[in-house]
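DNA repair protein RecO (Microbacterium paraoxydans), 247 aa
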Amino acid sequence: MPTYRDEAVILRTHKLGEADRIVTMLSRRHGKVRAVAKGVRRTSSKFGSRLEPFMVADVQLYEGRSLDIVQQAESLGAYGTDIAAHYDRFTAANAMVETADRLSDAEATPEQYLLLVGGLRALSRGEHAPRSILDSYLLRVMSLSGWAPSLEDCARCGAPGPHSVFVAQLGGLVCHADAPAGSPRIAEKTLTLLRALIRGDWDLIDAAPHADTAAASGLVAAYAQWHLERGIRSLAHVSSTPGEGAR
């Protein structure tokens, strides 16, 4: 059975037996991988701390029948400590890795990996408000997965905008004729912020008032929850209040 090496983000872990763990990771070239890390729960383990959630590692794996086996792990990005020290970063990171776990499989693209690494790095450094980093990640990773929200033309009939009604269940903006009765209108500044989040225009995002970011976050959460069907459980713990990364 072959051995292979790859870069990977640790998404989650589960205890196995007395000293082992099952590690779920999103790798750069092999998509989502589940592997057994033997002995990592022992204090003498050489790489146990490198296989914790939010960490980025260079891993060597032995291909097994159902689960691969971790043979080596070298740290590439030790983001876990800085993220775990701040509640708003921690909850945002949990929502991000849960989404990555739900959206990725063995065919996941390098872009999905790089997007998650970039988001976790930004969270660990406090570069922007944690909720804004999460919102941008959700919109961009869903776009990579083929679920980009329509922010210009009508998601239902394709009629060119501008439109002012956003309906998560229909795919984004919809024209007046396709909008369900009683659908609330979206403010133009909120729509502008959604477009900035999906582009990664951080100058505009960081300068936005809290009321606008909160409105945009509500729409992003509704859109992500609807299209992921079972929802993102971690989102329930994410605060919409600006954190230490907000400008």
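The chain is about 35% helix and 20% strand. The chain has a mean pLDDT of 91. ok done for today
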